[in-house]
TrEMBL record, chain A:
InterPro entries: Cyt_c_oxase-like_su1_dom, Cyt_c_oxase-like_su1_sf, Cyt_C_Oxase_1, Cyt_c_Oxase_su1_BS. Belongs to the heme-copper respiratory oxidase family. Its main location: membrane. GO terms for biological process: aerobic respiration; electron transport coupled proton transport; respiratory electron transport chain. It is found in: Membrane. The chain crosses the membrane at residues 35-55, 75-99, 120-139, 159-182, 202-227, 247-270, 282-303, 318-340, 352-377, 392-412, 424-447, 467-488. GO terms for molecular function: cytochrome-c oxidase activity; heme binding. Keywords: Electron transport, Heme, Iron, Membrane, Metal-binding, Respiratory chain, Transmembrane, Transmembrane helix, Transport. It comes from the Bacteria. Pfam families: COX1. GO terms for cellular component: membrane. Residues 18-527 form the Cytochrome oxidase subunit I profile domain. This is Cytochrome c oxidase subunit I.
From TrEMBL, chain B:
This is Cytochrome-c oxidase. It comes from Maribellus luteus. Signal peptide: none annotated. The chain crosses the membrane at residues 12-33, 39-59, 71-93. It is found in: Cell membrane.
Length: 536, 94
């Protein structure tokens, strides 16, 4: 089932109706749109990293170091808005979903290519709206990325463009989810039955449902905040008979499932990488599918664990705590299956593999620390402390971020048709990993000792931990620079890559690197014995 | 996709559904003139549910779709219902 590039042109060099830049920004080719997302998201990630670096500089010593308190409030808000709405939520689905999903199911494109391009344009529009909120008007938003009421409609900062920007970004996410759902249902090639789908596709499927069902809730919520600011309608404002906790319910009804939008495709990418580099059938294929759908479903029902100290009823607290512990089970099943896949595998240690195993390591620490926050008694102690920041970054940055780097190193030769410098890639991973541990691990300790988050100042007793954390941020950024320089350079000047350098078994490895414009010369047909992880 | 049969719905049925929707809209306005106290919102939601049912089934052709599409839509409404119930675990016991 090997496809050759008989038509000559690949998607990178193809010249269609439009030339040059227009040939990219008006292209409906899923692979080009995937790359547009990659470049956009990489730009925003770099911006977010710089803001994070600025925060760590500020926390290097107690008192004012490089910025005022109000500036710090704006910086952590903008860091959060950029990283959540522009990087990790679209992250893996928009980049690798677009680049790989149609090829992995044997299709020539997504079901609605024009809608796909519209999704990217909406993403760009959302980005510019949020950036406008930063640069113009009455000062950058300072509410935190959660836009909590009542402060979000009381603050004099530039909230409306930021809210509208997040709303537009939500639309982009919904359209991508809809597109992927229809694509997976309708465009699978012959023989590609549901139980033959690669696990990355399954996780995109679960994610698409969340994108489609949960995102409108936050869209409406943000519209209500805007109405509250402009007309004072009294939905969330207690002075007008409203309920600020209702805002938190509505916000987290989206934003907790959004965590699974971030992490499910990350888990999918890891589920592709582990069997490829173990050269072994994945352990518990059906259990991994079931756990994906269980996470997607139960993930809808646990949002209240963000609100344990907000004044919610005791009954609701018990309920949310119980379900939070239940949602940990499918995640643990995945970790168990990945490790079991490695057992007695013919392990080929390469850069994507390093990222994948370090993902498992940090994800486990992040997940287990989440149980501390899911238990009512311990949550009261560490709520709104640096512990939460550490947990969150271990899950979202250590989870989604590491999986993103794993995925880019895994699919890079397929996407660009060139191989990166492996020695520099491994060095980048090591420096990044050490920096990550040094940056976030002290925050667990600082939080348990009572250091609150979102303050530009702290007590002298927290100084040591903060020095280590800031030092870690410098190491992490050094690793990030090594990785980016290596990948950018290799995309242009790397050695030509084989069609299947890792000996993978999913369909994307049967097409040339980089793939032809229409992916396949002929629609592939899967036989009874074909499957995504048949290594035996 | 194009090889599948599409159910052709007669215009008369669309018209009947349209009349029903308009009648239900007037009814949902009219019901507010009756003092139902706590049940006012419930009454409005009841009319909205019936109207949604008609739109989904006839205008969006759910009635003529495959069972798995119906299951998916049903699943969405089930999720929505569960969210409402869970939210009220807070409001009713606060």
């Amino acid at each position: 089932m090997q496809t050759t590039a008989v038509n000559g042109a690949n998607y990178l060099t193809y010249q269609g109706k439009y030339k040059g830049l227009l040939g990219w920004i008006l292209s409906t080719d899923h692979k080009r749109i995937g790359l547009l997302y990659l470049y956009s998201i990489a730009t925003m990630f770099t911006t977010g990293v710089l803001l994070g670096l600025a925060m760590k500089f500020e926390l290097l010593a107690p008192g004012k170091t490089i910025m005022e308190a109000q500036t710090y409030n704006s910086v952590f808000t903008v860091h959060g808005v950029i990283m959540i709405f522009m990087v990790v939520v679209p992250g893996l689905p928009a980049v690798f979903g677009n680049l790989m999903l149609p090829i992995m199911i044997g299709a020539r494109d997504v079901a609605f290519p024009k809608l796909n391009l519209l999704s990217w344009w909406l993403y760009v529009a959302g980005v510019f709206l949020v950036l406008a909120a930063l640069l113009f008007g009455k000062g950058s938003p300072d509410t935190g990325w959660t836009f909590y009421a009542p402060y979000s409609f009381k603050t004099g900062t530039n909230m409306l463009p930021a809210i509208f920007g997040a709303f537009v970004l939500g639309f982009s996410s919904i359209l991508t989810g809809l597109n992927f759902l229809v694509t997976i249902h309708r465009l699978r090639c012959k023989g590609m039955k549901w139980m033959k789908l690669p696990l990355f596709v399954w996780t995109l499927y679960g994610t698409a449902w969340i994108q489609l069902l949960a995102t409108p809730v936050v869209g409406i919520t943000l519209v209500l905040v805007a109405l509250e600011r402009v007309f004072g309608v009294g939905i969330f404002d207690p002075a007008l008979g409203g309920d600020p906790i209702l805002y938190q319910h509505l916000f987290w009804i989206y934003s907790h499932p959004a965590v699974y939008i971030m992490i499910l495709p990350a888990m999918g990418a890891i589920s592709e990488i582990i069997p490829t580099f173990a050269q072994k059938h994945i352990f518990g294929y059906k259990a991994l599918i079931a756990s994906t759908m269980a996470i997607a479903f139960v993930g809808y029902l646990v949002w209240g664990h963000h609100m344990f100290t907000a004044g919610m009823s005791g009954t609701a607290q018990y309920y949310f705590s119980l379900l939070t512990f239940i949602v940990a089970i499918p995640s643990a099943i995945k970790v168990f299956n990945w490790i079991s896949t490695l057992y007695k595998g013919s392990i080929n240690v390469q850069t994507p593999f390093y990222w994948a195993v370090s993902f498992i390591f940090v994800f486990m620490i992040g997940g287990l620390s989440g149980l501390v926050l899911g238990a009512l008694a311990t949550d009261v102690h560490v709520h709104d402390t640096a512990f939460v920041v550490a947990h969150f970054h271990y899950i979202v940055f250590g989870g989604t971020g590491f999986a993103f780097f794993a995925a880019i190193h895994y699919w890079f030769p397929k996407i660009f048709g060139r191989m990166y410098d492996k020695a520099w890639a491994n060095t980048g991973w090591l420096v990044f990993f050490v920096g990550f541990l040094a940056l976030y691990t002290p925050m667990f300790y600082l939080g348990m000792m009572g250091m609150p988050r979102r303050y530009y100042d702290y007590l002298e007793e927290f100084h040591g931990g903060n020095i280590l954390s800031t030092f870690g941020s410098w190491v992490l950024v050094t690793g990030f620079i090594i990785i980016v320089v290596n990948l950018v350079r290799s995309a242009r000047k790397g050695a030509p890559a084989e069609a299947n350098p890792w000996h993978g078994r999913t369909l994307e490895w049967t097409v040339p690197s980089p793939p032809p414009v229409l992916n396949f010369d002929e629609e592939p047909v899967l036989g009874e014995k074909d499957g995504p992880y048949n290594y035996e | 996709m194009s090889g599948e049969k599409h159910h052709i719905v007669p215009y008369r049925l669309y018209f009947v559904v349209l009349i029903a929707l308009l009648a239900l809209t007037f009814a949902s306005v009219w019901i507010t003139s009756i003092e139902l106290r706590d049940y006012t919102v419930a009454a409005a939601l009841l009319f909205a549910i019936v109207k949604s049912y008609l739109v989904l089934n006839y205008f969006m052709h759910l009635k003529y779709d495959k069972p798995y599409i119906k299951i998916m839509v049903g699943f969405v409404f089930a999720i929505f219902l569960v969210m409402i119930v869970i939210t009220f675990l807070d409001y009713l016991y606060r």
